[in-house]
Write a structure and sequence with these properties.
- This protein has four domains: 190 residues, P-loop containing nucleotide triphosphate hydrolases (Rossmann fold), CATH 3.40.50.300; 133 residues, no CATH class; 107 residues, Serine Threonine Protein Phosphatase 5, Tetratricopeptide repeat; 84 residues, no CATH class.
- It starts with a helix and ends in a 6-residue tail after the last helix.
- Helices cover 61% and strands 5% of the residues.
- With 549 residues, it is mainly α.
- It is elongated.
- It contains 28 helices and five strands.
- β3, α7 and β4 form a beta-alpha-beta unit.
- It has a five-stranded parallel beta sheet with strand order 2-3-4-1-5, sandwiched between helices.
- The longest helix is centred in the middle third of the chain and has 32 residues.
Length: 549
């Protein structure tokens, strides 16, 4: 039964003048109590302010008189009556019960037991809700006694009684079904749609709400508590962000939270084998790969994960999963992760905006030159840190073709300005599409940027040594950097390396002795070897072979 039909049925039940017993059954966690509470509260607010109402959970109750006392303590009497004393004074049954109560007390009965004998009279014509029937301890309260009490409330005290229980948990309880037929007048099976579950579980809207609904459908997840836990964690992440999350990032966040909540607290806990759960982050894409290769049928849990397109765990997933387990977030860790995610999200949004600007040019024949140029400039400003030299070349080319040379120059400045002068981007010798970059203004700007960035910094010497001993070639920028070092610094490099690494560094630098652009590198290593040779006969013998022309 949907939430709308459920609400209508309950309203009809409450509006009836007849004392009746209504059973509300459904799967665990689907929101039965939540939805009942919403209906009874709305009904009292809008339709019947005089409605008396009492609620008690049967979970943990040690005796029937304890249940009676709970109902008495939680009785919400008419909002217009004069309170208990007036009710007792005007109620013959209550007066008689008071006399009976005094008799019980004088005979040594405890006050609590005596009050429990008295309580049903104050519940006269009330609506009573007894929740968690399946969790009641039959050793403390038998089904017969409870259903007898319910029957008493209905027949003797003209009460409406609502009994809420998990249908799965009482399926095999024959005693309950035997007596239920005699006591229960109406029965509703509460089975909310996935849309209802998500709506009840959290405050989502629009496309993100649709994402959550689709996740619930794929996992066949109708447990409101499980979904609520997931959405609460997602909300905690969202609150710590310095700006609104982009759609793709929020989609990933909500999807991961729902999935891990299902694994930890929903059906996934029993469906997925323990050994798989313990290694879910390792080679996840291979969990069911063997089944496909061997044409084996997928297990139910595998089908769900496959529908969910869940093939790998990243750092965000690991953090979300940890938060689902504990219920709270490690602030330092989440702030670091969110910062990274926000940078990724900012990059995605910037690139998307830039691509959309090009769409105005390629996907239309409208006379929209002014709009195109405006959005291209704005888009490229945002996307420049993430774009390639070819992308810059395309922007410059189209602007110059439209006689917007000043804007082309400005965009070159934007591109160069958002990068460190030591960025390898400016070294087109390593760029696979360098033949596409022919604009002189771009080439000159890149060359100037490289030359302005050749000041050496701490750590550069070790970085360059690492490149040489790995056998990899030096980029133009690295060549310029290495050329700035002194003979003394090169001597230090040679003396702090040994064996094959030493040979690779010497040989790697000697290759540049006849290099057209960086012959100084070859001269540096030869001068360093001569300095070492001059230290004495021993060093002279060791460097002799390296110093041969």
């Amino acid at each position: 039964m949907s939430v709308a039909d459920f609400n209508a049925s309950l309203t009809d039940f409450l509006s009836s003048k007849e004392p009746e017993v209504l059973a509300i059954k459904g799967r665990w966690g689907t929101g039965k109590t939540y939805s009942w509470d919403a209906v009874i509260s709305s009904y009292r607010d809008k339709k019947d302010a005089n409605l008396k109402y009492a609620y008690a959970s049967l979970f943990g109750a040690d005796s029937l008189w304890e249940v009676k006392l709970t109902l008495l303590a939680r009785l919400h009497a008419s909002r217009r009556d004069g309170g208990w004393l007036q009710k007792i004074a005007s109620n013959k049954k209550a007066i008689n019960s008071t006399v009976h109560l005094i008799g019980l007390l004088s005979s040594g009965e405890t006050l609590a037991k005596a009050a429990s004998e008295w309580s049903p009279n104050l519940l006269e014509t009330a609506t009573v809700c007894l929740d968690d029937f399946e969790r009641m301890d039959e050793k403390s309260i038998s089904h017969e006694k409870l259903l007898g009490f319910i029957s008493e409330l209905k027949l003797e005290h003209k009460c409406k009684v609502v009994l809420i229980y998990n249908s799965d948990a009482v399926q095999g309880t024959s005693k309950f079904h035997e007596y239920r037929e005699k006591v229960v007048d109406r029965e509703i099976e509460y089975s909310p749609s996935y849309e209802d579950v998500v709506r009840i579980a959290g405050d989502l809207s629009g496309d993100i709400q649709n994402v959550a609904i689709e996740c619930a459908k794929n996992l066949e997840l109708d447990n409101v508590r499980v979904v609520r836990r997931a959405l609460k964690v997602a909300a905690q992440f969202r609150e710590r962000c310095t700006q609104p999350l982009g759609f793709e990032l929020e989609k990933k966040l909500v999807s991961s939270a729902i999935l891990f909540s299902w694994i930890e607290f929903g059906d996934g806990k029993t469906l997925i084998p323990t050994e798989v759960q313990n290694n879910l982050g390792e080679n996840l894409s291979h969990i069911w790969a063997g089944y496909h290769l061997d044409n084996k049928p997928l297990e139910p849990w595998q089908k769900k994960l496959e529908r969910f397109s869940f093939t790998s765990l990243d750092e965000l997933d690991a953090l979300v999963w940890s938060c689902i387990k504990t219920g709270f977030i490690e602030s330092d860790r989440i702030l670091r992760e969110i910062d990274k995610l926000e940078q990724i999200d900012a990059k995605d949004r910037a690139i998307s905006k830039y691509r959309a600007a090009w769409g105005l040019f390629h996907d239309s024949l409208e006379n929209n030159e002014e709009q195109f140029v405006k959005e291209l400039i704005e888009g490229f400003r945002s996307a420049a840190p993430y774009e390639s030299p070819s992308s810059l070349s395309s922007v410059v080319s189209i602007l110059k073709a439209l006689d917007k040379n000043h804007l082309a120059t400005e965009m070159i400045g934007v591109y160069v300005g958002c990068r460190d002068a030591r960025d390898d981007t400016f070294d087109l010798s390593t760029y696979p599409f360098r033949s596409d970059i022919t604009d002189k203004d771009i080439l000159d700007a890149f060359s100037a940027a490289m030359n302005s960035g050749i000041e050496t910094k701490d750590g550069d010497i070790d970085m360059l040594a690492a490149i040489l001993k790995s056998g990899n070639r030096l980029t133009n920028l690295h060549q310029n950097l290495l050329s700035q070092y002194s003979v003394k610094q090169i001597v230090h490099i040679l003396k702090t390396h040994h064996g094959q690494e030493l040979d690779l560094i010497i040989g790697g630098m000697q290759k540049y002795r006849n290099h057209r652009h960086a012959p100084k590198i070859g001269e540096l290593v030869m001068d360093a070897l001569r300095c070492i040779s001059a230290e004495g006969k021993y060093q002279e013998l060791r460097t002799k072979n390296h110093l041969k022309d």
